[in-house]
Each structure stands twice: as structure tokens, then as C-alpha cells.
Amino acid sequence: MKKKNNTIAIRLILDGLMLLSVFLLPWWCTFAIGAVLLLLSGSYEIILAGFLWDTLYGAPTELFFGIRYILTVIFIVCAILGVLLRSVVKVR
Amino acid sequence: MLLTCGILLAVLLLLVIFEPPVPAPIANAGHAVGAPLWQLRSDVVAAAYGAFLSLESKQALITENVALREETSSLRRQVFQTKLLERENIELKSLLGRRDAKKDNDLLAVVLRGTDTTPYDLLIIDTGGDEDVVKGDLVTVDGDVAIGSVQEVFASTATVLLFSAPREKTPVMIGTASSSVPAIAQGQGGGTFLALVPREVPVAQGDPVSLSTLDATLFAQVEKVEIDPADSFAHVFFKNPVNVSTLRFVTVKKKYIWQPNAASIPSYEEKK
To answer: Which DSSP state fits B268?
Structure first.
């Protein structure tokens, strides 16, 4: 029970950091933190942070083939890869 | 596992194929929350930079160095501006009588977040729909150095996509009055550009580059020209005469809508 509470607390702290990174840190920090969290821990709420990032800063540029929701798309791909990765290595 | 992947994949396809617009209330709320945070961040960074400078034993020297650099940069821009004005003067002799109302529509804006915000040269400024800023308004620095256009407008903020955003294309004129050539500037990020022109065209380092508009807004300066004997096109590299990563203020030219029609101008790159 205590271990579970600790896990939830850590997850909430990381979510808070992610939210702050969306507003305050350079783009590559947000990209890196979100990708690592999704690949390793399966924190799907990070995808919402990606959506927020796209809402604030998204633009359909040539660099990303005109896709406006680029970070949401990247985070969803990371989440899918994370699910597959964890199923392969049997990690919950 | 399959259900999770299926749901994620469905959302992914929805976003990529249908590209639903961002709900305006969410976007406005996000920017309303973000604006004070960005202002705070900007103030903290400026204060930290000032504190760092004050610790330096050679502060006076640094200050003088910065001032001299700014003066040099300003003088350099004035030289380019003079060259452009020379050309503009010739072109406008046949257009006497036009009223210049540009200055009435200029709006100074503070840069809340700089080019480190996104990987594609986007700024967030502190003026928006409340000041009648509209999508497409031209954004300049130091008066007439064009750096981008308004991409999206919110209540009290707006996003500005720089012309130098990677792979963005902008029609420009390279060179002075006697030998200017139209070209398509392709953004390379960080205020830098690349254009291809026929190698017979006399383009040299230091030549001014302007937007292909009536008043020839200053745009960039040619930094390097690469000519390969086996290639019929010269690679012209140029960059904005201002450092776009350290901008603190910009000017929004209201009612000066930038509507590039790059497709209508022959692209040497495409021909190649």
C-alpha cells in the first residue's frame, strides 16, 4: 500500500514537472521528458500535456509536413511503443 | 494491450487525417495562464543575466563591448537600408502621391517566449486580438527588418512564425537596384536561409536581401555564395541582420498583411 502511494506521488510530481516544462522549458526538454515517461512508465496523461503544448505553440509548418498536433502525435507513438516494449520485457 | 494500442492509434489517425481545429476556449485559456508565466520567466532570465554580469570583474569592458557591437550592427543595418532605399526611390518615382500610413499602424510588442519554445522558430508576443492584431500581420525588428508574420491570434497574445522556420519558403529579391534577382528563400532555422539562383547572376557576400514587396522591406544579408562548376545554380546563404534568438521587442505592422504567393514565383529549386 505504501509502495503504491509512493508511486502515485512520484507520478504526480513528474506530471507537475511536465506541465511546468510545457510553459517554461525549451521544446527539447518537454519532448525528452514526455518521451521517457511514456516509454518507461506508461503515464498516458502525458499525451494531454502534448496536446496542451500543441494548443499553445502548434503551427502547421513544412518541417513536420503540415501536422499541427506534432507533439501529441509523437507522444502517442511513444505510448504505443511503450506498451509494446513493456509487453515484450514483461514489465508492469 | 491491444485495446490500448487501438485507442491510441485511433486518436493518432484522427489527428493526422482530420486535423481538427484547436477549440478556441482551450487555446485562449492556455494563453491566459501562460502569459504571466512567460513574463515571469522572461524577467527571471533577464535578472539572472544581469546578476551574472555584475559578478564579472570586467563588467565595464563587457558593457562597452556589447554597446559597440550593437552600434556596429545598427550601422550595418543602416548601410543595407540605404541600399534598399536607393532602389525603392527609383521604383517609386512613378508612383508619386501614394500616402504612407505605415507608421500609424505599427505596434510595439514584447517577446514573451523566444525561438527555444519550438523546433520551428516561433515567437509568442504580448499583443493579440485586443489590439486588433490579425493573422498574417507582418512582424519586423528595428523598424524595417522583416522577420516573420503572425501565425495565430489569441485575446492578449499571438504567435509569430519566423520566415527562417525550417523549410518555410518566402519570395525575396537578392541584390541591389542594378542587379536584383527574384528567388525563393528557404528557411534553415535560427534566422538563416538558403536560396538557389542561376550561377551567372552576380550575387556577392554582403548583398542585401529584401522581401519581394512594393516597399522592399529589408530581410537579410548574403553571408556566403557557393558555386559548384558542375552545378548550374549557385547556393546563396543569407541570414537576418538581427539575432532572432535574443529578441526582446518586435513591431507588428497592422494592416500590412503578408500573403506570400511563393507558388507564383518561379522556383529555381523546383526547376532544378
So the answer is: H
User: How many Cβ atoms from other residues are within 10 Å of residue B17's Cβ?
Assistant: 8
Q: In this complex, do B161 and A77 lie within 8 Å of one another by their Cβ atoms?
A: no
For helices A2-24 and A46-57, angle between their N-to-C axes, nearest 10 degrees: 10
Q: For cell 505596434, what's the residue?
A: B107
Inspect the interface and report whether the beta carbons of B9 and A61 lie closer than 8 Å.
Answer: no
Nearest-CB residue to B9 (from A26, A56, A80): A80
Alpha carbon separation from B124 to B109, B117, B253, B265 (Å, rounded): 10, 9, 16, 30
Is the model's pLDDT at B241 over the cut of 90?
no
Pairing of strands B169-174, B181-189: antiparallel
**Which triple of cell numbers denotes residue A68?**
499541427
Q: Which of B144, B194, B204, B138 is nearest to B164 (CA)?
A: B194
Beta bridge partner(s), residue B237: B194, B224
SS3 A7: helix
ipTM of the complex: 0.80
Whether the pTM exceeds 0.95: the reply is: no
Per-residue pLDDT, B259: 63
Decide if pLDDT at B258 tops 90: no
Percentage with pLDDT > 70 across chain B: 81
Cβ-based burial of A37 (10 A; exposed 0-12, middle 13-18, buried ≥19): buried
CA distance B207 to A48: 47
Number of Cβ within a 10 Å radius of residue A19: 16
Interface touch B5/A80, C-beta < 8 Å: yes
In this predicted structure, what is the pLDDT of residue A90?
67
DSSP label at A26? -
Q: Does B161 touch chain A (CB under 8 A)?
A: yes
